[in-house]
Amino acid sequence: MDEILAGELSRAESRRRLRMLKDRLFGVSMGVGGVAVIGTLLLIFLYLLYVVFPLFVPARVATLETNTIPLAADPAFVAFEEYGEVGLAVGGDGTYSFFATADGAAIAGGALVPAGARATTVRAGGRIGRTLAVGLADGSVVVAKPGYVVSFPDDRRKIAPAMNFPVGEAPIPATGDGSAVQLLAAETADEQTTVVAWSAAGRLVLTHLSVTVNMLEDEKTLEKSAVEVPIQDKDLVFLSLNSEQTMLLAAAANGHVSYYDIRDKAKPALVERILATEAGKRITAVEPLAGGVSFLVGDSGGRISQWFQVRDRENNLRFKRIRSFSDFSAPVVAIEPEYARKGFAALDASGRLAIYHTTSERMLVDRASGVPGARLLAYTPRADGLGVIGAERRLGRLAVKNDHPEVSWRALWGQVWYESRNQPEFIWQSSSAASDFEPKFSLTPLVFGTIKAAFYACFFAVPIAIFGAVYTAYFMSPRLRTVIKPSIEIMAALPTVILGFLAGLWLAPLVELHLAGIFLAIFCLPVSMIAASLIWNYLPSALRHRVPAGTEAMMLLPVVGFVIWASMNLSAPMETAWFGGNLPMWLNSHFGWTYDQRNSLVVGVAMGFAVIPNIYSISEDAVFSVPQHLTNGSLALGATPWQTVTRVVLLTASPGIFSAVMIGLGRAVGETMIVLMSTGNTPVMDFSIFKGFRALSANIAVEMPESAVGSTHYRVLFLAALVLFMITFAFNTVAEIVRQRLRVRYGNL
């Protein structure tokens, strides 16, 4: 007997040890799993930070070397080809030289002017496909364009520069009276060439040349017209044409800038004359920004201002100073815009060099030029190099590392005054077909859209889910609960792309067609439910007792169906009688509310259906887990079931209910496909329920496949993902803190 008892004790001890081992292994595995989850989240955060960090690395400039430009005369113009390996210098005497930037060795050269002619001025046109123009003492102009042929013999890049003459090498009369050309501007493209010359006699003459090709005889005919442009200022210092050859800019030293419409080359029209400097300051440098929409004005006080046209109250375009950069203490002597971006470099009389970006309103670099007598600047087309030209034909080459100048705190989160906009705004518009497009990377409308989507989704889902959970857990019969709860929870398995598809293609048109009926149903459903409940209480007891306790809510289903059916059928008569047959148009005409078919109302309903299962399931479990003795005690003390629910059950279950709401909110914040498919994806900041929006998640899904790896656009999208990550992390952290406090407060009930 003792042996049997000892054997039983031994087996019991073995089972206990095995159970303890299992418990210990389970605890370790749970701990490892928790640490793995936290580690994974940390790795995601660090990777996002790794991709985003270069956005905030400051611009850097390094000095490469200083060479002598192989040119007899002082350079009046210097430019580089795309790779920055070959430079072009044009002297004030009309000679030119292509040279290797690494050592200053001459590659090719010649003269733009005929033998015996004397050059008086040199001017280059737009940044892309630079048009060169040389004015002569006899009032004529030579127009040329540099070209570069790139080949790869023996798998090595070879650049062969050449000078082209689109309207011939012969000088073109430009002043009309034979007086010397003092200033000029020229552009040539698509067989059209426009030259504007300011003569020593004080005349501003526009010359237009058009080349027509006879396809049958393979002959070219040059047609020429010339007209004098009326000018009020006689001390012009700068002329500029836009690349489309439709607008002319003329700046005078006294600070006035005149803007002409030259679409009709025979009738140039003065559009506006503005004072672009402060009183007593003279214009010392003027350059159009990339794209030709804005122009920059530097003055003798060291200030650089940006100007472009905005619409006034009469809807007329007028030039306005948008922003100023007042960092120089000496007069500005040179402004060099980038070829494609909205940045520029500037040089003052003391040799100080600065690099700016207009959209982000940042000074990126501030340093000494390092070249004695610096007076000219030249960007490489890729903006990765900058040439500083000084005295004695010295060229200082600088390597520029400035990958993301568009990004600043203001550009990401503040209102920015973008080109051609009438006021500062929050705008997200990351790309365009134009190479000189001004990117708009404001994350504010995307965050606004994310919050808007979550708000309307929770506004729809939270009341339905919580009230449904309370009824299911506290009032519904156990048998019916075993059917209803799994049915609602299985909704969470429905792919959100299906919900988005249905919302965009079925629900959105349905809501637009029956908008009045939708609002009628929203009003009538709760009223009809209350009325039906009151009527139920006044029915005979024998009839009411035939319905099993806890299933009374099923009697409301016909009421709900009838109200929805009646509302939809009354929609058209209501719109005809009260809203002129079209409620969206009536809202626009009376309140100025525009109606988008795919709007926040549709998104709220669709996302609400996606969020309801999560909130409902967790809330129902929290309510159902309230100890039975609490409810029994409350009822025994004379409280009604409703008082017991509101004052005992909900308070005890509040930590779980709050967690459910926050989990649902987090789900709504991160939702992608429903927002992507059922809203207009327009990044507007309008809280109207009838307007669409664009959320952070949907924006990432739409634009990430189209962004160039490593570009500013690419990294800003990762920044949007980081912001979304931090928003959800903040929501979850706050939710856990509040849940713990609620648990401590009501845990002793």
Examine the secondary-structure arrangement and name the CATH architecture of the domain at 444-508 and 594-746: Orthogonal Bundle
Structural class: alpha+beta
* Distance N to C terminus: 52 Å
Helix fraction bin: 25-40%
Fill in the CATH topology of the domain at 444-508 and 594-746: MetI-like fold
Task: Report the principal-axis shape.
Answer: elongated
User: Mean pLDDT across all residues, rounded?
Assistant: 88
**CATH superfamily descriptor of the domain at 444-508 and 594-746:** MetI-like
Number of strands: 31
List unreliable stretches of 5+ residues. none
Radius of gyration: 37 Å
Task: State the helix count.
Answer: 15
The CATH class of the domain at 444-508 and 594-746 is identified as Mainly Alpha
> Which percent range describes the beta-strand content?
25-35%
Main pleated-sheet profile: 5 strands, antiparallel
